[in-house]
Amino acid sequence: MKNHRKALILSMALMLLITAFSGCQSQQPETSEKTEPTTAAILPASTGDEPVKGISNLGISPEELGIAPNILHDSHEVGFQLEPPQPGDTIAVVHTGKGDFTLRFFPEQAPKAVTNFINMAKDGRYNNTSFHRVINDFIVQGGYVGNEEGSVNGTNYYGGAFEDEFCDKLFNIRGAVSMASSRRDENGSQFFINQTSAKAFADKGGWSPYESAWANVKSQLLSYKDSNLLSAYIDENGDKFINTDVIPEDVRAFYEKQGGNPNLDGAYNAADRGNTVFAQVIDGMDVVDEIAATETDDKNIPAEIILIKNIDITTYSGTETTTAETTAE
After folding, report:
1. What does the alpha-carbon distance between residue 39 and residue 175 come to, in Å, rounded to a whole number?
2. CA distances from 94 to 97, 277, 282 (A)
3. Would 37 be classed as within a structural domain?
4. In the chain, which end has fewer C-beta atoms inside a 10 angstrom radius, N or C?
């Protein structure tokens, strides 16, 4: 048992190569008069087996561990999330202390997350909340609403945590907007914008750190599969279980070109963990970069308070300036 514990400690140290997400609190926002709710169209999701093969092939039953991913296998091509919205689509213009940026939504792929964000914005619940966690060349995080005890991820439109929505054609590339949650299926109000550039992705080693981490995970799973430490190991490290064995070449190339954080994707996580992608920045990524460049303390809290002043939910006319270019120099 002592050797198992020692191995677990060594494993956890190695896994720090990939940053894990956790909820973070912010200040209480102002609220406005409640508007009529907007509901995104919901498509049926299909249970995907690709991500769990990395566990089942090792003789470990995902079902016995409560791992049952429900992944939408979308018909779009890899890269569609960089396409501009269609005229008539709902978009969001986020007004911040550093300037504005615009979001395109994915209501068919992440209906609950999109519905949550749109209605929270319409109700003014994101008004005067801050970007409370900023890590340059990684993420810009904000949107914490409420200070209720036990609401580590913030209070959302539904009044309670809602489940993850993973799609095999939406990725945490640069400019992707995702739900920030500390545990599986515990989405609240918080969201983050992926800010890692293609250069930063390459400078960090590209896919090599993720491949090394997955190889180490498989080794540890084999060590623990007949031990009572198995569940504890997966619970502690599951957010780092990106299964590089099953990631297609076009997905790999997409990240190499755009940058981003593939360890946050749920569709290729072998432990059913990840962050739901529900929108993409289509204009104003320079504003996101300026926020990301803000000086922070050792807890990644900006020294300067940067607020979301308010968010306009509007309709895309087709004449707005948008860009699919997300790569920073």
Report:
1. 24
2. 10, 17, 12
3. no
4. C
Residue 94 lies in a domain: yes
Distances from the Cα of 45 to the Cαs of 56, 165, 308, in angstroms?
Answer: 22, 9, 33
Which residue in 245, 243, 237 sits closest to 13, CA to CA?
237
Q: How far lies 50's CA from each of 168, 237, 275, 296, in Å?
A: 10, 19, 18, 39
Q: Whole-model pTM?
A: 0.84
Rounded distance, CA 229 to CA 225, Å? 8
Question: The tokens of 43 are what?
Answer: 């498509």
Task: Say how many domains are in the chain.
Answer: 1
Confidence at 16, pLDDT banded by 50, 70, 90? very low
Give the pLDDT score at 319.
75
The domain in which residue 205 lies consists of: 2-30+46-315
Pick from 143, 135, 119, 239: nearest CA to 191: 143
DSSP state of 86: P
Cβ atoms 173, 262 nearer than 8 A:
no
Which is more confidently placed, 27 or 236? 236
Spatial distance between the Cα atoms of 159 and 155, rounded to a whole number of angstroms: 6
Please answer whether residues 20 and 269 qualify as being in contact, where contact means their C-beta atoms are separated by less than 8 angstroms.
no
Question: By the 8 A CB rule, do 59 and 44 touch?
Answer: no
In 3-state terms the chain splits into helix, strand, coil percentages (rounded to 5) of 30, 20, 50
In the chain, the percentage of residues whose pLDDT exceeds 90 is: 67
Closest CA to 26 of 98, 100, 134: 134
Strand partners for 129: 308
Tokens 């190889």 found at: 215
Q: Rounded to an integer, what distance in angstroms lies between the CA atom of residue 54 and that of residue 49?
A: 10
Is 244 part of a structural domain of the chain? yes
Q: Domain holding 56: CATH number?
A: 2.40.100.10
Residue entry with tokens 């400690």: 9
Which residue blocks in the chain are alpha helix, DSSP H? 2-14, 53-56, 111-122, 198-203, 208-224, 230-237, 249-258, 285-292
Question: Is 322 a member of any domain?
Answer: no
